[in-house]
């Protein structure tokens, strides 16, 4: 069955679980609120949510280098204690997230970090395309909402499908790890480097490449 944004929001406030987890829980329980809560508890997601308010100021900065040194990622992931920061499960999570960022190229951690002007520009593009179909405005707004959610899933790290297990999102993987290690965790920030990105090639270099392509 289709669940509403209000139902998802209510379950999220009650359990603190992620939006996508709440949506799936409601779908699996055909909209039954109590069954949805039980679903999240069985998955360990509600337990993880209870830890969400606790300060996470320790952690680690992880690195991943790919493609013979042409792509590099640094990511900061926080936890509550230095003891957990040295835990194998935590270290594996840090490495996995750095590798995922190298492969999936998110632009931010969460949707709240998407600049308002970028989001508005995307909406205008979706709106213009939808109007070309001749659909009424109320339908167009629903189309835009769906397109915006797809946009978030493309650019926001937490909402991306995890490259090593596309049946779960990064947020779900994070919550599973929180439940496993018993501490709050947070992906704070990341940077991806691509060799030569933003640099203009010299005219001589460009000419050499053209000549090589032409077999000269």
A few lines on this structure:
With 216 residues, the protein is of the alpha+beta class.
List the helices and strands and how they pair.
Blueprint: H1 5-15, H2 19-28, H3 33-42, H4 45-50, E1 58-66, E2 71-79, H5 82-85, H6 88-104, H7 116-131, H8 137-155, E3 161-162, E4 165-169, H9 170-181, E5 185-194, H10 203-213
Antiparallel strand pairs: 1-2, 2-5, 3-4
What's the multimeric state? Answer: single chain
Q: Order the strands across the largest sheet as they lie in space.
A: 1-2-5
Mean pLDDT: 85
Order of helices and strands: HHHHEEHHHHEEHEH
Query: How many β-strands, per DSSP?
Result: 5
The CATH homologous superfamily of the largest domain = Elongation factor Ts, dimerisation domain
Q: Which overall shape is indicated by the principal axes computed on the Cα atoms? A: flat
Q: How is the biggest beta sheet arranged?
A: 3 strands, antiparallel
Enumerate the spans where pLDDT stays under 50 for 5 or more consecutive residues: none
The CATH topology of the largest domain: Tetrahydropterin Synthase, Chain A
Give the termini distance in whole angstroms: 63 Å
What is the percentage of strand-forming residues?
A: 15-25%
Summarize the amount of helix as a percent range.
40-55%
Main location: cytoplasm
Family: Belongs to the EF-Ts family.
Organism: Oryzomonas rubra
Keywords: Cytoplasm, Elongation factor, Protein biosynthesis
């Amino acid at each position: 069955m289709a669940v509403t944004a209000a139902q998802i929001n209510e379950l999220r406030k009650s359990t603190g679980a992620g939006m996508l987890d709440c949506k799936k829980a409601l779908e699996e329980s055909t909209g039954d609120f109590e069954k949805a809560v039980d679903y999240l508890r069985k998955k360990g997601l509600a337990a993880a949510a209870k830890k969400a308010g606790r300060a996470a100021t320790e952690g680690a900065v992880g690195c991943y280098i790919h493609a013979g040194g042409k792509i590099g990622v640094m990511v900061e992931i926080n936890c509550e204690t230095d003891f957990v920061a040295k835990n194998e499960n935590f270290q594996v999570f840090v490495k996995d997230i750095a590798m995922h960022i190298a492969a999936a190229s998110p632009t931010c951690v969460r949707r709240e970090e998407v600049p308002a002007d970028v989001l508005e520009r995307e909406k205008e593009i979706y709106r213009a395309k939808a109007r070309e179909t001749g659909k009424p405005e109320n339908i167009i707004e629903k189309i835009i909402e769906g397109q915006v959610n797809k946009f978030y899933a493309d650019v926001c790290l937490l909402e991306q499908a995890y490259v090593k297990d596309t049946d779960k999102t990064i947020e779900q993987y994070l919550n599973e790890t929180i439940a496993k290690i018993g501490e709050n965790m947070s992906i704070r920030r990341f940077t991806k480097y691509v060799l030569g990105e933003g640099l203009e090639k010299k005219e001589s270099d460009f000419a050499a490449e053209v000549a090589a392509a032409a077999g000269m």
